[in-house]
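Table S5 (text form). Sequence records supplied for joint modeling of the two-component complex.
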Amino acid sequence: MNELIRRALMLPPQASSVAHRIDVLHYTVIGAAFAVCFLVFALIGYFLIRFRDHEGRKPPRYKLPHLVEVVLASVTLAAFLAWWFVGFTQFEDIRTPPSNAIRIYTVAKQWMWQFVYPSGMAAEDELRVPVGQPIELLGTSRDVIHSFYVPAFRLKEDVLPGRITTLWFTAEEPGTYQILCAEYCGAGHSRMRGRVIAMQPTDYATWVQGHTSGDLASTGEHLAAQYGCLRCHTVDGTPHLGPSWKDLYGSTVPLDGGGRVIADDAYLTESMMDPTVKLVAGYPPLMPSYLGRLSGPEAAAIVEYIRSLRSTPGE
Amino acid sequence: MSNFWNEPRGLKSWLLTRDHKRIGVMYLFTVIVFLMLGGAFALILRLSLVEPNNALVSAHTYDRLFTHHGITMVWLFMIPSIPSAFGNILIPLMIGARDVAFPRINLASYYIFVIGAITVLVALVAGGVDTGWTFYTPYSAASATAVTCAALGVFITGISSILTGLNFIATVHTMRVSGMRWRDLPLFVWTIYATSIILVLATPVLGLALLLVGADHAWALGIFDPASGGDPVLFEHIFWFYSHPAVYIMILPGMGVISEVVSTMSHRKPAWYGAIVFATIGIALVGFLTWGHHMFVAGISTFDAGLFGILSMMVAIFSAIKVFAWTSTMYGGRITISTPILYVFTFIFLFVFGGMSGVAVATTSLDVHWHDTYFVVAHFHFIMVGGTLTAFLAALHYWFPKLTGKMYSEVWAKLACAAVALGFILTFTPQFLLGNAGMPRRYATYPPQYQWLHVLSTAGACLLALGMLTVLLYLIVAVFAGTPAGDNPWGSKSFEWRSPSPPPHENFPAPPVWNTRTDGPYAYEEET
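The corresponding structure-token record, covering 843 residues in total, follows.
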């Protein structure tokens, strides 16, 4: 039955843990719309025949009592409120990620999706996840507003510059599901597509192993994603909320309030621990201090990662 | 016969007229021109969507076309369509007045509207705008197109809206014929009054939003740019604070038209008059508190989403009350089948489905899937565009004999009505299904699984265009060669039909007399 109505309404497969529940509410509301419309037009049709104008006929002047008005309005209101209640309960679930969710960072830009995994690995336009495991996407945009949308999951959330929005899901069945951008973002909007590849947990584990290397720069990349550095610092040269890390290491940067400094290990480490002391000119003093949050080896690994982002390696 | 068309004579007497009927007629011609322009944009869009990879226009052209389709239809057709055209023509006639309260401001309002519309056209000629009619930042700040010019044009039409709104409020308060109480006002007057309140209160906020966007685009002020400490979601709040009530600016006057036509064609007093007035004012006021339902997935809090959801349900209940009231007005009446009431039936069909799909998207968890898809496009085209357009056509056919003293061909009119109704339903029903299937809006190209529904939708759009052109043709023919209609061809009791058709310059040859029991706008029960 579910399958029949789903196909009749052209809905995509129900591939996430919430999709089936949402669809049942959908069927109820649409069913009621058809019922109300049928009722109204059945009445209008009957009145048209019964009270059609004939020469010389005196209209009967029947009147519906006010009670009818009150009952109709009350029943309608009760139905609307019931839908609101069920819908809002579902909405709260959609918006509250479980505590055991895997956190994956999503960075949107015109016109691609980038996903940064806990291991520090990044992939473009392709999000691999294990089935049965809650995934929490923390999304931000580097330019204009985008919207992460997976029709088969019945989920979407706008991805905005300057803030993090979250969306969580649990994929139910292995398979490939379309990611679409739902917020108009320019000439490439309709081409900003990606896909979610839901895999069996064992396949996912093998895939993660195969894509994680053990060197220090990769650890730094992983840590930079984990601590949220990449929310504000890009690695491709685009300035965002903070300076890009691309070609930053070893370069001379102008400071807010005058002066220059060479971005070496010391300066980069100092900036992690006390970011506002030597602020790079042109950027707002937004960065929090990581003093006490990053250990020495972790800070070093991040510096190593920044160092690895030079286009011309060499001391 | 001397009437407002031929007395006084001359082009100058038209351009400098202070006669509310002439100003209304000038608005009517102007908005019909913009309806045709916006419709032409829509047809090009629909034709280019027949094929998934958009052979007809480039993606950038597509983006500018849907932007100008939206701007033209919203601000140059739907907002002024019924209030400025039919409101101007009818309000003084319906309340037994000689003119509106401020005839000179009324004329100024028309010219300000024209200046604003021309400014929008200048933006179009300068290459157009590609931001969507919603001007969302930071895209609009960075766009290389004529954003500032278009925003300025819309800003100027807003001044016209405010002046017209103030004029109508003052007119209803001060110009009613002696003895006409508020509870005697025709329902059309009530809806224009409620609309005017929204025009006056909401339009300044639109002006604010557009000025900030225009300035941001022109001088890179970074008002809504996070890198400068701004917030793009703030723009969405300000924009929808106007643009949601704007939906009621479009639909409330339409509801007024429907109330008038149902009552006249059923030869009955409107059922539940008090409830309709209450619902009209309720829509106007509660409509100010629902803007957040455009932003359920835009990063607002779960609590806010729930609150805006429940407030949106409240607005829906007022609309439901109106549908029940129109239906029960027919009960026990003497119903004449004519073209205006066929448009009323089309309106009710679109309004019930559009309204129920509105309740569906106000249900927070359902909106997550539908938001920014074709489902929303179909929803607002059904209720807002379909509602405004069918009410506009109902008004045009209902008051055509009032305006011209002529009658159009009923056969052609009924055929065209069928084409418009079927064309409209065929255009947008597939779009509901496209939205269910996950097709986002504003896509110049699309995944191929959506193609057959797009083809159906385009076929519907062609039928709709054919119907609309037919209306234009037989109405033009009727102006010159229509049969004489007489002063009151529908047998209406409403006050505007008591003056000759077309009315003379001073509206009523002798000052009208009002007695609520026998002369009320809906005194059908006194019929012998």
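Note: Helices of chain A lie at 2-8, 19-50, 66-95, 201-210, 216-226, 229-232, 265-273, 296-307.
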